[in-house]
Amino acid sequence: MLARSQYYLLAALAASFVASLFSGSFNSYFLDVAVTCGINITLAVSLNLINGYTGQFSLGHAGFMAIGAYSASLLTTNFGGKLLPLVGGQTWIFFPLALYAGGVVASVAGLLVGVPTLRLRGDYLAIVTLGFGEIIRVLLQNVDAVGGARGLIGIPDYTTLFWTFGLAAITVYTVWALVNSTYGRGFIAVSNDEIAAEAMGINTTRYKITAFVVGAFFAGLAGGIYAHFKQYIAPQGFGFDKSIEIVVMVILGGMGNNVGVIIAAILLTVLTETLRQFGDYRMILYSLLIIVLMIARPQGLFTWTGWKRKSA
Amino acid sequence: MPPLLELDRVTIRFGGLTAVSELTAHVGGHELVGLIGPNGAGKTTVFNLITGVYQPTSGDIRFAGESLVGRKPYQITGRNIARTFQNIRLFPSLSVFDNVRVAFHLHVKHDAVHSLTRFRAFHAEEKEIAAQTMELLDIFDLGKFRDEPAKSLPYGSQRRLEIVRALATKPKLLLLDEPAAGMNPTEKTELTKLIRFIKDKFQIAVLLVEHDMQVVMGICERIAVLDYGVKIAEGTPTEVRANPKVIEAYLGEEPTPG
Ligand SMILES: Nc1ncnc2c1ncn2[C@@H]1O[C@H](COP(=O)(O)OP(=O)(O)OP(=O)(O)O)[C@@H](O)[C@H]1O
Ligand SMILES: [Mg+2]
Question: Which end of chain B is more exposed for a tag (fewer CB within 10 A), N or C?
Answer without folding.
Answer: N
